[in-house]
Amino acid sequence: MSSAQNGDGHITATMTQYLLAMYSLRRENQPLIGARLAEWLGIAPASVTEMLKRMGQEGLVQVGRGREIGLTQRGWQVAMSTARRHYLAERLLTDLIGVEWSRAHAEAERWRFSITDETEEKLWEALGRPTTCPHGSPIPGTGACFSPHTRRLTEVEPGEAVIVERIAERAKENMELLAYFQEHGLVPGERLHVCEASVVTGTLMLQTARGEVTLGTAAATQLMVVPERLFGHRPAPDRLRREVSHAAP
Prior knowledge:
With 249 residues, this protein is α+β, with helices and mostly antiparallel strands. It contains ten helices and eight strands. Helix 1 (13-27) packs across helix 4 (73-97), helix 2 (34-41) packs across helix 3 (45-57) and helix 4 (73-97) crosses helix 5 (104-111).
């Protein structure tokens, strides 16, 4: 692949893909080891091992005795820059160009390489200085952060009302799941009421602005929520609300 546009021709686009995956794993409090990284990226462990060697030579990562991967200061800087440009690309696609919310992550994989140091700040300004990506993840460098009260939807007790804070990083790779979330209004800023949780069927029954929704636990774990009483209702952007309302069959 071509070199990433980050001012250093030795850091390839593939390396930035790895760094973005490592950044996402850290944000999700997942162990940063080769096997987990291979699973996240959907590639062979041997390929990950070889790439980590190359990234180590570039001063981006260090692999400890326990095989845990550590990002160097330089690695973190490039990872955060990559994440920032990726999230800004998502915002550009959804807020200005009109790309579907469920497709933004996949499209941004290509678009982020067009953002340079010179255009990054101007793009952020043009977008209205957003603090999160369309899926709710904080944009590095904006001061935004996760709520300390965030938990997965599967951890919410029946009878409790919550606000969707963000979509888990892993779920962003699943366009069909994102489309389902969008269709049923399970998007950042929306209020959900957990009506029932069934251990037998492995499902949750939710009440949303669109009506009742039954969600499997595998999908529910990908929704990060905050109790309504600790969050304060933050409505989703108008455009996203229109997409949600138009997604109904």
